[in-house]
Specification:
Elements lengths: L8 E4 L2 E5 L10 E3 L3 H9 L6 H21 L10 H16 L6 H19 L4 H40 L7 E5 L14 H10 L3 E7 L6 H12 L4 E4 L4 H7 L4 E4 L3 E3 L4 E4 L2 H10 L4 E4 L5 E2 L20 E5 L13 E5 L13 E4 L6 E3 L4 E3 L14
Helix pairs in contact: 1-2, 1-3, 2-4, 2-5, 3-4, 3-5, 4-5, 5-6
The structure holds 5-S-methyl-1-O-phosphono-5-thio-D-ribulose.
The site of 5-S-methyl-1-O-phosphono-5-thio-D-ribulose (MRU) has 17 residues, from helix 2 and strand 9.
Pfam families: IF-2B
Keywords: Amino-acid biosynthesis, Cytoplasm, Isomerase, Methionine biosynthesis, Nucleus
Catalytic activity: 5-(methylsulfanyl)-alpha-D-ribose 1-phosphate = 5-(methylsulfanyl)-D-ribulose 1-phosphate
Length: 388
């Protein structure tokens, strides 16, 4: 396997490259993102995915766009006045925001950039100064991610270990299950739910991670498998339909998942299949923990029923992409890949939501970089005010 140093985005000055996650784990291809259109397209096509990572790419694309303009000779006309700058940048932010609808982090990032822009205009600053400030905010949005991931991972892991200890007879190390991919590839580094698992491993408290394949995009079997292998974390993959069986036959201490949007009451949108896992976890008395940054908490959305759920094209659920097996390599030693259709041609009824909503009632704890929220005794909803 490759040792490219797991990352979703790498930057050098204003040069942005992303790993094309559609080709992982067999081919590591970096794609340069040098326009706002390319950033939008990469997010929409899921070449980059994961709520924090798509927000970072949008923010970095704006950062690079503005820095290039500030260096350009002659300067573009839209840097001539604050009004012209605003008329140029705001539509770019609106456009980036339309790339994917469910992950609130993308909207949070574009709104934050927009607020920096508006504040600069309102303060009567020079267009170049405002552009520099918006660019700096873009860089900051990306940089903040890794630090907060490490914090939430520690909060969540320590809380879980304390819960297990409280029940008595705590095992030396825990088995934990996760869904989708929430690690370095889904964020700017370390990860959220996968960060918690990594923290348990680093502190000698993880026996084994279980992860679902997370069909139809296989974020689990392609990406989480790749990350866990590279981190040398003992791990076992299961098909999405095997979660109930896993809980019946193995001692799983917790299910830990990420989130694309957490409503004010704690209802959580995450990768489709998360709700199934939560129902089964409740049935088996297994704690269900959501780990996400504050930017994923959407206090403007009262409950899960208001969260927009992205429907992906039907065709995507009919296709599987991967390396030819037995492996066949080209002259450069690169494994050949193919996309194959697993359904009969012309199937016209396909249900393909990208996310589902797990009701707060089924969630044991919500962890952010600020801390851990649990429901009050007997409550079905969270009060998240202490963790945002
Ligand atoms: O469709 P995706 O791959 O972007 O979905 C990703 C997820 O659902 C993740 O669990 C979520 O974004 C959290 S990533 C830290």
């Amino acid at each position: 396997m490759s040792s490219f140093g797991l990352t979703s985005i790498r930057t050098t000055g204003t040069k942005i490259e992303i790993v094309n996650q559609l080709l992982l784990p067999h081919t590591v291809e970096f794609v340069e993102i040098d326009t706002i259109e390319k950033a939008h397209d990469a997010i929409k096509r899921m070449m980059i995915r994961g709520a924090p990572a798509i927000a970072s790419l949008a923010a970095l694309a704006i950062h690079a766009h503005l820095l290039r303009a500030l260096d350009a000779q002659p300067a573009p006309e839209w840097l001539a006045s604050p009004a012209a700058l605003q008329a140029h940048v705001q539509p770019l932010l609106d456009y980036l925001y339309t790339a994917r609808p469910t992950a609130v982090n993308l909207g949070e990032a574009t709104r934050r950039l927009s607020r920096t822009l508006q504040a600069g205009v309102a303060a009567g600053k020079d267009a170049r100064a405002i552009a520099a400030e918006v660019a700096a905010t873009g860089k900051l949005i990306d940089a903040e991610d890794v630090v907060r991931n490490k914090r939430m991972s520690r909060h969540g892991a320590e809380w879980l270990l304390a819960q297990v200890a409280q029940k008595g007879a705590a095992p030396a190390a825990l088995q934990v299950m996760t869904v989708c991919n929430t690690g370095s590839l889904a964020t700017s580094g370390y990860g959220t739910a996968l960060g918690l698992i990594t923290y348990l491993h680093e502190t000698g408290k993880l026996q084994r991670a279980f992860f679902t394949q997370s069909t139809p995009y296989h974020q689990g079997s392609r990406l989480t498998a790749f990350e866990l292998q590279s981190l040398q974390i003992p791990a076992t993959m299961l098909c999405d339909s095997m979660v109930g069986s896993l809980f019946q036959h193995h001692a799983v201490a917790a299910v830990v998942v990420g989130a694309d949007r957490i409503a004010k009451n704690g209802d959580t949108a995450n990768k489709v299949g998360t709700y199934n896992a939560a129902v089964l976890a409740a049935r088996h008395g297994i704690p269900f923990i959501v780990v996400a940054p504050v930017s994923t908490v959407d206090l403007e959305t009262a409950s899960g029923s208001e969260i927009p759920i992205e429907q992906r094209p039907a065709l995507e659920a009919c296709l599987v992409r991967g390396a030819l097996y037995p492996f066949a390599t080209d002259a450069a030693g690169v494994k050949q890949q193919a996309t194959v259709m697993v359904t009969p041609e012309g199937l016209d009824g396909v249900y393909n939501p990208s996310f589902d909503v797990t009701p707060a009632e089924l969630i044991t704890a919500i962890v952010t970089e600020v801390g851990v929220a649990v429901k009050a005794e007997g409550a079905k909803e969270f009060d998240l005010s202490n963790v945002v």
